[in-house]
Write a structure and sequence with these properties.
Rossmann fold, five-stranded parallel sheet, 49% helix, alpha/beta
Length: 350
């Protein structure tokens, strides 16, 4: 088993680790410290920031906070550093995510934080700049990761979810049970994939460019999926919001167009299914990853069912088929996915 696939297979254990940590006293003390500080400092705004995977997951994290009536926004760390430091004129909780805790822009932003900022770090590496310098560091407990981000993307996302649930008074036995079920669902997908994976490989065939489409929290997964394709297979892939795809990019669709579309039960399911049907009608192929049993009968649509009804957790579980597809696609084309040839796991220059 190669390193990339091995790290994919470690995800259920990583989910168990982070769930247990925040279900017990040490993790709860960190969460309570944040909740207390938000109240004491009269925090006026919450901003999520990160680079790469950590920036992408900030979209879903901010959406969850807003869904919980905890108003928040998100911004790329480099853009925050160079163009938007005036945001810190208000009392701010900055939720800074970095799996390594050593990304160049993250270390730079830590040098530019005024006293108005309470910095929460979400970080996997416990002995890193972010872990040491954040006011509170929420640890992800994902274990070591060397290849393109897979398990650390999932646990960093979960740390942000747990923080939101705790601040909203919803981190309870029900949510812990949901994460335990998520772990089991990951196991099922990872242990029984040969049939559907072969179908997906045959359906999409050779890929030169790929559009990955989603709405809501799954847009984080679409963006991360596109990054994995670019990093791990060197395929030009783009993650795009479903609403944005209607505004021009649909003109690209013709015979030979290839896409992955995430469609979750929730506020935009109807729009997402309609988009899959329209792409297929125009001759494009859609690998439809969804948590709704589908009766779509179109040779240009390949449905893939994900057993997770919660829209936010669906956005995490639904990345597993993409991870496994990337590993298998690389193998069928004679190379190993996930190695860095022009950069490194941790980006240390801007």
């Amino acid at each position: 088993m190669n390193k990339f696939l091995a790290e994919i297979m470690e995800q259920p254990q990583a989910i168990e680790n982070i769930t247990n940590f925040y279900a017990n006293s040490e993790g709860k003390e960190l969460l309570e410290k944040i909740k207390k500080t938000v109240s004491e400092k009269n925090i006026q705004q919450i901003i999520f920031t990160g680079m790469g995977s950590s920036y992408f997951l900030s979209h879903a994290a901010s959406s969850l906070f807003n869904h919980l009536n905890i108003h928040s926004s998100y911004i790329n760390t480099s853009e925050l550093l160079h163009y938007n430091l005036s945001l810190f004129e208000k009392q701010t909780m900055l939720v800074c995510s970095s799996q390594s805790g050593e990304s160049f822009e993250v270390k730079e932003i830590l040098d530019h934080l005024p006293k108005t900022v309470f910095c929460v770090g979400i970080v996997n590496d416990e002995d890193s700049a972010l872990a040491h310098r954040a006011d509170v560091a929420l640890l992800c407990k994902g274990g070591k990761e060397e290849m393109t981000s897979t398990k650390t993307y999932v646990v960093t996302s979960l740390a942000a979810c747990i923080l939101g649930w705790y601040l909203a008074g919803e981190w309870d036995d029900e949510k812990i049970g949901m994460l335990n079920r998520l772990k089991e669902n990951f196991k099922t997908l990872l242990n029984h994939y040969n049939g559907w994976l072969s179908d997906a490989l045959a359906f999409l065939g050779d890929i030169s460019t790929l559009q990955i489409i989603a709405r809501g929290p799954a847009f984080s997964t679409a963006s991360q999926s596109a990054l994995m394709f670019k990093e791990a297979t060197h395929i030009a892939a783009t993650g795009i919001l479903g609403g944005e795809f209607r505004h021009g990019p649909m003109e690209m669709v013709t015979e030979g167009f290839q896409s992955i579309l995430f469609a979750s039960e929730g506020k935009t399911l109807i729009q997402s299914i309609k988009m899959a049907e329209d792409i297929a009608e125009f001759g494009g192929k859609v690998w439809l990853i969804t948590n709704v049993k589908s009766n779509l009968d179109n040779k240009n649509i390949l449905p893939m069912y994900i057993n997770e009804k919660d829209e936010f957790l669906f956005s995490l579980q639904s990345i597993v088929p993409v991870q496994l597809f990337i590993d298998a696609y690389a193998k069928t084309h004679g190379f190993e996915a996930g190695n860095f040839s022009r950069g490194a796991k941790v980006t240390v220059i801007e």
